[in-house]
Amino acid sequence: MAVISVPNLSSNRTASREDVKSKIIVDHVEIEVAPKPPVADDFMYDFKYNHALPTTDVLGVEIPSDCDAQKEASSIVTLLSKVMGEGDAQGFTDLFLEYGVWRDKLSFTWDHRTFNFQPAILKAASDLFPTTKATNFNFLSPKPVVCRPYPDFAQLQIVVSFETELVVASAVINSVLTKNGWKIYTMHTVAEKLKQFPEISPNDGHMTGDISWEKQREKDIDAAEPEILIIGGGQNGLAMAARCKALGMQHLVIDRSEEVGDIWKKRYEYLSLHFPHWPDDLPYFSYPKHWPTFTPAQKQGKYMEWYASALELNVWTRSTVAKADQDESGQWTVVVNKGGKETRTLHPKQVVMATSLCGVPLTPVIPGMSKFKGVIRHSSEHTSARDFVGKKVCVVGTSSSGFDTAFDCSRRGVDVTLLQRSPTYVMSLTHSVPRILGGYKPDADGNRPSHEEQDRLFFNTPVGPGEELGRRTAKVLEDLDKPLLDALNARGLRTWRGQRNTGNATLGQTRNGGFYFDAGACQDVIDGKIKVEPGYIESFTEDKVILNDGREREFDLIVFATGFSNTIDSIRATLGDKIANQCGPIWGIDEEGEFKTAFRETGVANLWIMVGFLPMTRFNSKILALRLKALQEGISPAPYKI
């Protein structure tokens, strides 16, 4: 077993991506004596409030098939409006199941918090309601509906808006019918607007100066003096810039790439995004109606380039942080190497790290590697297998990048072997897409539903109930995908049901890997075009690869699809040891069911982390931008930390 270690990167905070890669080493090899679970149940997962679903057999009553959803929802919302408007913490708590869950983002807590079960709900409401009253409840679309995902589980889904003194917010309420009437199972409250500081109106657009729009943009970008400095120009950085601009905050994005969108343009050339584009639009700039279902990666990069231009975002490409310091009051001084030609000193009020969940690529150093006459690269460096037609390739690792790289080879007729050490969670798109993304699907005329509406529903489920539902979904998908999985297993590819048996749900919240959504490679495994071998590389000779158990193989190219380190390494390389050492753990689930550090206080004053997949980018960028605007205007209460 190769043991991966991440070096101290503080000696060169401005190292290039290539320099950073070269420092990721493994200093020795150990032999794995006994197999271990691919990912432990508690890996990056501290959640402590699991509870079975409130199924009909537990509740002792079913929601009638002729239930008048609007009528029942009106009664529930009337009661909710009364107790919240009056600040009645006990009355509010009594509306919940004993094991109900209240999740909040900014509207009450000015943080991301989840209160699991009645005692926690009562404590939070008792503390928060005296200073925050909810009023003016109104129904939002979609209208109330009884959702019946399983024969033994149903809930009444209600979406409303409400107001506090500071914000307009929304709530998604899921209620179940008990012998004592309706009880709230989950409630997700989210701030959506600052009442005093709404998004600004668009400018007039008439050209009144003495230079062209393009020349004026060049001047504005060059002269940027940001209140919000965003490091990283991928999807998260651009979305944050757009949100901040819409709220009237001066922003600047810096990115080391040559062009905006290179994060996608320079991926392996045949890559398309694995899921339909339906939920992937960035804020304020939807894909055109006839956009391909699965977006080619290079096209996604172009979309990001168009996005930055169309929304007039300030982006400095080919730029890096040369030095970053904070004084005792948390004020930033950031020296930027701009375009490799000059340095600029900036004094932003807030810094947002948006360099993705990936820290730096992890490539093992294995005995004899330096003698090997073939080519060795990390999957992040792989663009095409076209130069290896007629040769032999080994791809180490069977997560998404491993499968994608192997598929790049097999589709060109290259002799390719996947080396699998641990089982992989695999699911087909045929069965998973309708269940996971069905709400975003276009209608028969190609018109997609409102992202704002669907995002409220998609992100409303707390971790505890989500885990229970995730286990059921994973079992359903495994049964539906049984022919596929059996055929893969017959070829030697080992599969499993994911961390905590939830498919990709928990894995996405923790490891952010270890899964593959079949984008075509599975059939090539089944057909023998992609060979599969178990184990790992133990050593190299000049012309051979020695696998565990002494198996000798000959390959011309080794691609290590071995993943990345944590975001903290990117922060360390960019902002230095002093800042990185103060940051809390990044990603994974905390005890109450929220992401650690991302989108919230980091442990460093005025430093924020924005990460996530495309729909999450759109959803959380709005919430974080509202928080930053409230801080800028001096109206943000302290986050509730009890």
- Oligomeric state of the chains in view: single chain
Helix content: 25-40%
Can you summarize the main beta sheet? 7 strands, mixed
Task: Give the C-alpha Rg.
Answer: 26 Å
Briefly note the structural class of the backbone. Answer: alpha/beta
Strand fraction band? 15-25%
Regions with pLDDT < 50 over 5+ consecutive residues?
Answer: 1-34
Termini distance?
43 Å
Overall pLDDT level:
93
Overall shape: globular
Total number of helices: 19
List keywords for this structure.
29% helix, 7-stranded mixed sheet, 5-stranded parallel sheet, 642 residues, disordered N terminus, 25 strands
Structure notes:
- With 642 residues, the protein is an alpha/beta fold.
- Strands 1, 2, 3, 4, 5, 6 and 7 form a seven-stranded mixed sheet that branches. The chain has a five-stranded parallel sheet with strand order 10-9-8-14-25, with helices on one face.
- Strand 21 and strand 22 form a beta hairpin.
- The N terminus is likely disordered.
Summarize, please:
The chain is α/β, with parallel strands linked by helices and 642 residues long.
Task: Write the topology of this structure.
Blueprint: H1 17-22, H2 56-59, H3 69-85, H4 89-94, E1 96-105, E2 112-116, H5 117-128, E3 135-139, E4 145-150, E5 153-163, E6 167-178, E7 181-194, H6 213-222, E8 228-231, H7 235-246, E9 251-254, H8 262-265, H9 297-310, E10 315-316, E11 320-326, E12 332-338, E13 342-346, E14 350-353, E15 375-378, E16 392-396, H10 400-410, E17 415-420, E18 425-427, H11 429-437, H12 451-458, H13 463-480, H14 482-490, H15 504-509, E19 515-517, H16 521-526, E20 530-534, E21 537-540, E22 545-547, E23 552-553, E24 557-560, H17 567-575, H18 577-580, E25 607-609, H19 614-633
Parallel strand pairs: 1-7, 8-9, 8-14, 9-10, 14-25, 15-24, 16-17, 16-24, 17-20, 18-19
Antiparallel strand pairs: 1-2, 3-5, 4-5, 5-6, 6-7, 11-12, 12-13, 21-22, 22-23
Helix pairs in contact: 7-19
